[in-house]
Design a protein that fits this description.
Elements lengths: L4 E4 L2 E4 L3 E2 L13 H14 L3 E3 L8 H10 L7 E6 L1 E4 L2 E4 L3 H15 L4 E6 L8 H13 L3 E7 L3 H10 L4 E5 L11 H8 L2 E5 L33 H17 L4 H12 L3 E3 L6 H9 L7 H10 L12 H4 L15
Parallel strand pairs: 3-4, 4-5, 5-8, 8-9, 9-10, 10-11, 11-12
Antiparallel strand pairs: 1-2, 6-7
Helix pairs in contact: 1-2, 1-9, 2-3, 3-4, 4-5, 5-6, 7-10
Keywords: Oxidoreductase
Protein name: Aldo/keto reductase
InterPro entries: AKR (IPR020471), Aldo-Keto_reductase (IPR050791), NAD(P)_OxRdtase_dom_sf (IPR036812), NADP_OxRdtase_dom (IPR023210)
C-alpha cells in the first residue's frame, strides 16, 4: 500500500508510525510474543514504515521482540529506539552520561540483532549531565556507524536549541494530542525553525480519545492508574469532555482515534503521530487516518472542545513529571 509520507531527518516514513511500547510494557498484561510478532508483521504489510521502541520498554524485551519478529524485513522500515531511561539490575535508571548512553546503545543493538539504529533518542533529560555532553556521545556513536540520526524526547525548546547547536537534531518526541497541547507552548515553533520533526507519542491520549477508557478499573501495572486525570474523582469529568469529541467524530464519519490522529497530522507538515496498539483491527483503523485529511472546520471544532485546561488533573504523577523538560501550559495542573 502506498501511503502519505512525512520526513524525519534523512528518512521518509509513513505519515503515521507505530509506537511499539504496549506490545511489552505499560498497559496491563502485554500480548504474547507470538501475537506481538504477528502485529508487527501486519503493520509492515499495511504500510507502516516507522517502528518506535526504547530500551526501557519491557526491560529490553520490546527491542528483543522487534529483533525476533521483523529484522528479516529490515529494509522495509525506519527503526527508532531510545536511551537514558533504562533498566539496570532490575532497577529503572535515568542516566545520560556518555558511558551509560554507550552501554544502553550497545545493549540495544544486541537485543535488536542489528549493528545500526536509524534514529536514536535521548528518552528524557538528565539534569545532572549537560545536554551538550550527552549529544556529543551520540555524535560519536553516529560517526561509528551505530546510529543514523539523533532525537530528543520530552525536552523544552531551550534544551532542543542547545542540543541542535552541537549536532542537528532530526526529531523531537513529545506527548501531543487534541487533549495534550504542551508542544504548542514553544517546541512546535522551535522544530519549525530548526527543521526538526515532531513525533507525537500518545496521540490518542493513552486511549482516552480512542473509546478505550470508560472507568478507572485498569489492569495491574497500567501506567494510567497513578495519573490524576485518568482516575476518579477527575476521570468522570474528563469523560464528559471526551463524549463531545466522540460525538464530533461520529458526525464526521470517523472513529475517535482517526479524528485524533487526523488532528495531529493537520497541525504542522512535520508532525508524525505514533499510536500504539495490540489490535490488528486498530492497526488498519489508525493508518486510514493518514489518507483522509481533516477539513479546517473540523480541526477548529476539535480545538473548541479542548481549550487549555479542558482536561482536569495533572498529566503525570509528581515523580514522572520531575523527568519532563517540556514546557507546561499556562495554569496547567501539576501533581503535588
Amino acid at each position: 500500500m502506498t501511503l502519505p509520507t512525512r520526513t524525519i531527518g534523512p528518512f521518509t516514513v509513513s505519515a503515521i508510525g507505530l509506537g511499539c511500547m504496549n506490545l511489552s510494557h505499560a498497559y496491563g498484561v502485554p500480548p504474547s510474543a507470538e501475537d506481538g510478532a504477528r502485529l508487527l508483521n501486519a503493520a509492515l504489510d499495511l504500510g507502516y514504515t516507522l517502528l518506535d521502541t526504547a530500551a526501557l520498554y519491557g526491560g529490553g524485551e520490546n527491542e528483543r521482540l522487534i529483533g525476533r519478529a521483523v529484522m528479516h524485513r529490515r529494509a522495509e522500515f525506519t527503526l527508532s529506539s531510545k536511551c537514558v531511561l533504562d533498566l539496570v539490575d532490575g532497577k529503572r535508571i535515568l542516566d545520560a552520561t556518555p558511558a551509560a548512553l554507550t552501554r544502553t546503545l550497545d545493549g540495544a543493538l544486541g537485543r535488536l540483532g542489528t549493528d545500526h539504529i536509524d534514529l536514536y533518542y535521548m528518552h528524557r533529560l538528565d539534569r545532572k549531565v549537560p545536554i551538550e555532553e550527552s549529544v556529543g556521545a551520540l555524535v560519536r556513536a553516529k560517526e561509528a556507524g551505530k546510529i543514523g540520526a539523533i532525537g530528543l524526547s520530552e525536552m523544552s525548546a531551550e534544551t532542543i536549541r542547545r542540543a541542535h547547536a552541537v549536532h542537528p537534531i532530526a526529531a523531537v518526541q513529545s506527548e501531543y494530542s487534541p487533549a495534550v497541547r504542551n508542544p504548542e507552548v514553544a517546541v512546535l515553533d522551535a522544530c519549525a525553525e530548526l527543521g526538526i520533526a515532531l513525533v507525537a507519542f500518545s496521540p490518542v491520549a493513552r486511549g482516552l480519545l480512542a473509546g478505550a477508557v470508560h472507568d478507572d478499573s485498569y489492569a495491574e501495572g497500567d501506567i494510567r492508574s497513578p495519573m490524576p486525570r485518568f482516575v476518579e474523582p477527575l476521570l468522570s469529568q474528563n469523560l464528559k469532555t471526551v463524549a463531545g469529541f466522540d460525538a464530533l467524530a461520529a458526525q464526521a464519519g470517523l472513529t475517535p482515534a482517526q479524528l485524533a490522529l487526523g488532528w495531529v497530522l493537520a497541525q504542522r507538515p512535520f508532525t508524525v503521530p505514533i499510536p500504539g496498539t495490540t489490535s490488528l483491527a486498530h492497526l488498519a483503523e489508525n493508518l486510514a487516518a493518514a489518507e483522509r485529511p481533516l477539513a479546517a472546520d473540523l480541526v477548529a471544532a476539535v480545538d473548541r472542545l479542548f481549550p487549555a485546561g479542558a482536561l482536569k488533573g495533572a498529566r503525570y504523577p509528581a515523580a514522572m513529571q520531575a523527568q519532563i523538560d517540556t514546557e507546561t501550559l499556562p495554569g496547567e495542573e501539576l501533581a503535588a
